[in-house]
Amino acid sequence: MSCKSNRNGERRMSVKSRRIGLNGDTAVAYAAKQANVDVISAYPITPQTIMVEKLAEYVNNGELDAVFIPVESEHTALSAAVGASLAGARVFTATASQGLALMYEILWIAAGLRTTVVMALGNRAFSPNINIHCSHDDLYAVRDTGWIELIAENVQEAYDLTLQAFKISEDKKVLFPSTISLDGFILTHSLEALYVIDDAYVENFLPPKDPVYPIDPNNPITYGPLDLQDYYIEHKKLQDYHFENSYPRILEIFQEYSEFTGRTYKPIKTYGLDDAEVAIMILGSSAGTARFVAKKLREKGQKVGVISLTLYRPFPVDKIKEATKGLKALAIMDRSLSFGSPGAQLYMDVASALVNEREKPLLFNVIYGLGGRDLTPDQVEYVFKKAQEYAKEGEVKELKLWVGVRE
Amino acid sequence: MGSIYLTNKKNVWCPGCGNFAILNALIKALERLNLKPESVVLVSGIGCHGRINQYVNVNSIHVIHGRVLPVATGIKISNNRLTVIGHAGDGDAYAIGLGHLPHAARRNVDLTYIIHNNMIFGLTTGQVTPTTPKGMRTRSTPYGNIENPLNPLLLALVSGATFVARGFAGDIKHLIYLFEEGIKHKGFAFIDVLQPCVTFYNTYSYFRERVYRLEETDYDYTSFKKAIAKATEWGERIPIGIFYKIRRETFEEQLFQLKDKPLVQQEIRINLEKVYKILS
């Protein structure tokens, strides 16, 4: 493909691409193959399984020169990934829901030891009761652990963000592991047409990993030794400092990839916010539904907008402050619950990001789509209506709304 | 079928699945033992087998992947008058949850642990498990499995299980006998069931040609040495039956707290009023 303008008038790629059809899982696997990973360790769990199956196939076909370890649990999958990453390898793993929950202690270790593991999450609800469909419980369970979190809205983004995740994690100004979230079944199993970069061009964006302090017999070092009252807090302050400082570098890498492919990547996506009075903030594949409704309402003259996030951690506080300026009411939609909290996870994030702003919209929380329940345009319209109502009355009547639930 | 142990829930296993034999054999064993449905607890894990708790009309809990034994142990210790039966797949019992098996066995908690061993991850559509034979092509080993399979019977034996058996889903009559004996056994009863997966690994004819019943030989299941030797027999002939059975004090029998009655029937001996006073 040569230089053409796309719908948004952006310059289209100096890089050769082709258009193929893949589902979310195979698109992520394709990107990991193109990233030329060295080690893949994974355990099957729906709806992620296709990713690792596909990678096992690439390795066994000789298309990818990597070691595939079919481990005995997710705890082992991430532990093996941590070891491989510290030894200097480019590492990929993937999981969902309970698999992520079983990885929990290693999530902190992978981040604290500054590994560069890249992990895809086929977002799925936590038990009980057993459910294999989409909630964002697993995505939110990562939020405190020190991982970079990227969220795809469609299959193209799942592919693009996987490539960017390796670049981000391995960057010397970052050195933190990354997750790419894609809605279980809605994206993992849906076939979409997407642009994939020709193999020969991938390395221009993503050179081989240049490990920092890899495990080296000639220069032995110790990872993660006992660290008590004497130094632990200093090390945590440093980790926090570096995590926050990865943010500007992530934005630069987004920019670099946007220029490379012609597909724009920014930490947040906004629609209609130039003049919007009320807006919805939402994550993942449902953002498209929200925009579809917003477009219809805007055609009728209603001033509504949509905000969605591509980068969830580090949380893009500055962009959210900027985007919400001038809004009268903002509905924050969560596909998860945080029992006993003031609101669900995204609501709490946004509320604390805006707390000291002089002018800020009224905020309320909407719970939707748990366990794969569809979010319909009617429900989105209802949420906009509520936001308009609250904006008009100047107060939030009900802080937590549920949509799509049988009463 | 009309058994009091069956629910009317629609069964969704593949036609011909080895799980049907295990389900039917369990129902028959419960009938023969004449256990009250409310006195039985069934704990199942993650995988195709896990749905068994919807089909058997007893108390049941569907736990997370690999954790059948810890939950079953907790139930048994809290109310040792219950009959507790754990169902797990080979992915459950031998991969993610393997760590629990040796400990449950050496502890000798009075449980029955039935493994639906189809040597493949069936629910996630056919990936390698710890009992997949070497060289076997699966979705995650498209050019053949390079790892040696685990011998679950040997592991149970050396861990101290007091009842070790193997069944075959193609021999229901024998399976009923094993389940009945396993449930009656005082102590940890481990029953590995060779279960063909008609969709991803159909082993019916393979096993049918090879299995033979230990009960039809002069095998003596009280000898640990003989059991170890028998457990290594695998190839042209594959033994099924009770490999090992001895009586050893169970975990619960040694707990002085359970001497009189189960924990759940005991009164809480803390004076809460006093505690509140101290705290206030």
What does this 3D model show about the protein?
Chain A is an alpha/beta fold. Chain A has 2 domains: 2-261, 3-Layer(aba) Sandwich (Rossmann fold); 268-402, 3-Layer(aba) Sandwich (Rossmann fold). Helix content of chain A is 39%, strand content 20%. Chain A has 13 helices and 17 strands. In chain A, strands 5-4-6-7-9-8-14 form a 7-stranded mixed beta sheet, with helices on both faces. In chain A, α1 (24-34) packs parallel to α2 (49-61), α1 runs parallel beside α7 (155-170) and α3 (74-86) packs parallel to α5 (104-112). Chain A is globular, with a radius of gyration of 21 Å. Residues 1-5 of chain A have low confidence and may be disordered. Chain B has 280 residues and is of the alpha/beta class. Chain B has one domain (19-279): Rossmann fold (3-Layer(aba) Sandwich), CATH 3.40.50.970. In chain B, α9 links the parallel β7 and β8. Chain B starts with 17 loop residues before the first helix and ends with a helix. The model of chain B has no long low-confidence stretch (mean pLDDT 95).
CATH-derived topology of the largest domain in chain A: Rossmann fold
CATH class of chain B: Alpha Beta
Q: Strands across the major sheet of chain B, in which order?
A: 2-1-3-4-6-5-8-7
**Which residue ranges of chain A are poorly predicted, with pLDDT under 50 across at least 5 consecutive positions?**
1-5
CATH homologous superfamily label of chain B? Thiamin diphosphate (ThDP)-binding fold, Pyr/PP domains
* SS field, number of helical segments of chain A: 13
Kindly identify the CATH topology of chain B: Rossmann fold
- The run of helices and strands of chain B is HEHEHEHHEHEHEHEHEH
Largest sheet of chain A: 7 strands, mixed
The coarse silhouette of chain B is globular
